[in-house]
Amino acid sequence: MAQPDSKKIFFENLSGAGKAIAVLTSGGDAQGMNAAVRAVVRMGLYVGAKVYFIHEGYQGMVDGGDNIQEASWESVSSMLQVGGTVIGSARCKEFRSHEGRLKAAHNLVQHGITNLCVIGGDGSLTGANLFREEWSGLLSELVEQGSIEADAIQKYSALHIVGMVGSIDNDFCGTDMTIGTDSALHRIIEVVDAIMTTAQSHQRTFVLEVMGRHCGYLALVSALACGADWVLIPEMPPEDGWEDKMCQKLSATRSRGTRLNIIIVAEGAIDRHGKPITSSFVKDLVVKCLGFDTRVTILGHVQRGGTPSAFDRILASRMGVEAVLALLETTANTPACVVSLCGNQSVRLPLMECVQMTQEVQKAMDGKRFEEAVKLRGRSFENNLKTYKLLAHRKPETELPTSNFNVAVLNVGAPAAGMNAAVRSAVRVGISEGHKMFAVSDGFEGFSKGQIKEIKWADVGGWTGQGGSLLGTKRTLPAKHVEKIAEQMRKNNINALLIVGGFETCDRIKQSASGTKRRVFIIETMGGYCGYLASVGGLAAGADAAYIYEEPFDIRDLQANVEHLTEKMKGSIQRGLVLRNENCNENYTTDFIYQLYSEEGKGVFDSRKNVLGHMQQGGAPSPFDRNFGTKISAKAMQWVTKKLLETFRQDEGRVFANSEDSCCLLGMRRRALVFQPVVQLKDDTDFVHRIPKEQWWLKLRPLMKILAKYKTSYDVSDSGQLEHVVRNRPKESDASVAM
Ligand code: ADP
């Protein structure tokens, strides 16, 4: 697998010797910022650079002194799972002035710092860019003042800047997700789920106000994730007369027996004329028009709180590593960049272009050019809005098309969080397209027994947030009952089947194990032969090792890992985490590994083991899984419609489904959703182990190892993986992480 020159590329790009990198967090705090700081520090040290913390954002840079401190590898341990920012953030008036920036430049030069990682919102990044442009002027001034030596101008000639966007609002253009957004969504959805349980006892309407003074992302995506009845966002204000429409909709759902209505209002929601729509206005409206018992919940800072989600930890860790690489590759002429993920690929984007585009959105909203504002927010935002509209608003029967097609939906395999969201979406989109929708219970087994019945729009209300499979699922393969299934398809005149299942979408495991005194946790994860959960969970939780089937290991690796961990635990590190995928090796079992670590760690640490088992499939689905299930299923249903229309023969009144693409798997590759004929998948699949032959996420494993300090034992050229990371152009298909 090794590329002939991968080692060369590795060393050329990764030498940070003689460089000093400083990292700071600025503006509003966001969960996941610590993961980014940790990754910058460890990657910086890994490449041989000196790394400095700047505490309290730009204020610390202006004030200098103790605010600027050299970071050690240990100084960032146990902060991956902490919310907010450990190194402090602030708003700083002084930095907006030339005088303030002059002081800041002086402080950096004194430490020899010419590389800066700024984690913050668009304000902070604008400030950083300005600072960079002024840099050489500032140095000349300092020389004139006599504060620094004349040769400093030459020595510190350029300031390199890289930005990472930390903002719970996801309000930065050019990036799919900003650090903190996913965690904020978790907080919102937890509240919605809590409200839903109390609301079952009373008939109530909840008006939920979420953060986002200028950006409706949190409101829109939480509305999608909980199937809210109405959502109000600044980018797309409702048409005039919306008040009546909203009340009609609420009253219609009540008359169908819904006990709970949810309306989500973004902090910055406005009407078509730019007038704010507040949550209390919405509440008064509902009370006045409908007389419903209505409550307002304003989430406020809760959304910034709590531990960062697995997604944010991975996002921030990957961005931090990429930021260091970007700094090492920057020349005096490269424009300042922000690092981000596009789909699942690390990318570098020109900082000022993104800032300008972000400001354009505001201008478009101010100028009431709302369509344009939505477009500028990006493709994923537009798609969220489209899907929300499609699923939340049922057209009256008379306006629905009639297709005369019957489509059945079923779940197969193990239950996975997000399945119900997918079924709801398929049913509703199917109905909107004019099909008659059928639900099959208990997978193919149920199908063979004729457990099939029509399912209507209202039957799937409230399904997005529920765990497991509400339809019921079985692992039985269709081959066992193929005759009977065919008979049922004929009997019910089913023209198309939409199958949800077969792979685990659960991301619960990625939540962390948190530490106590000098203890190593050995955790067994699920996944059959697929090491995804162990590897990606390992990255999110800061694991020291993750044993998987795809990357074979032997006794020498185990020995190296145990010794590495023992050394680490002799220092200030209190916690070790080792993940083991259930089928990684038939002889090196979880018990074996547990006993090995227990024995070798005697006197240094004790070990605990935990087999996570079925709890990984349980619980309520994460916002990501809800939305991924919803969107992917809507897309699948639209594709089914298209295929049905294409293959329907008018003269015979039948659908002909005999081409290769009559049976496709819809999945995420890089940034795109791709329909791939199942017959083609045969070549890409390892049927014995039930995994794809190529696993895109293997390229993330080097990151986990670097962040866990495998400095000496890790040979990058052997895996050939890091090259992708270094060049920032992953070649394999990627599952998207953006919502
Ligand atoms: P955010 O980064 O979250 O958008 P702010 O807009 O409050 O938050 O910016 C954070 C800090 O960044 C400010 O307090 C200030 O120190 C600095 N900053 C923001 N805009 C500028 C600017 N145009 N010039 C210089 N510094 C700025």
Unique bound compounds? adenosine-5'-diphosphate
Helix percentage: 40-55%
Largest sheet: 7 strands, mixed
Chain-averaged pLDDT? 85
The CATH class name of the largest domain reads: Alpha Beta
Bin the strand percentage. 15-25%
As laid out across the biggest beta sheet, the strand order is: 3-2-1-4-5-10-11
CATH topology of the largest domain: Rossmann fold
Nearest-angstrom radius of gyration? 27 Å
Architecture overview:
The protein has 739 residues and is of the alpha/beta class. The protein folds into four domains: 18-178 and 308-362, Rossmann fold (3-Layer(aba) Sandwich), CATH 3.40.50; 181-303, Rossmann fold (3-Layer(aba) Sandwich); 396-505 and 620-634, Rossmann fold (3-Layer(aba) Sandwich), CATH 3.40.50; 519-617, Phosphofructokinase domain (Rossmann fold). 41% of the residues lie in helices and 17% in strands. A seven-stranded mixed sheet has the order 3-2-1-4-5-10-11, with helices on both faces. A hairpin with a 2-residue loop joins β23 and β24 (672-677). α3 crosses α4 (98-111) and α9 (242-255) packs across α10 (279-290). The longest helix is centred in the last third of the chain and has 25 residues, at 623-647. The protein starts with 5 loop residues before the first helix and ends in a 12-residue tail after the last helix. The model is unreliable at 1-12, 503-516 and 712-739 (pLDDT under 50). Bound molecules: adenosine-5'-diphosphate (ADP). The site of adenosine-5'-diphosphate (ADP) has 16 residues, from α5.
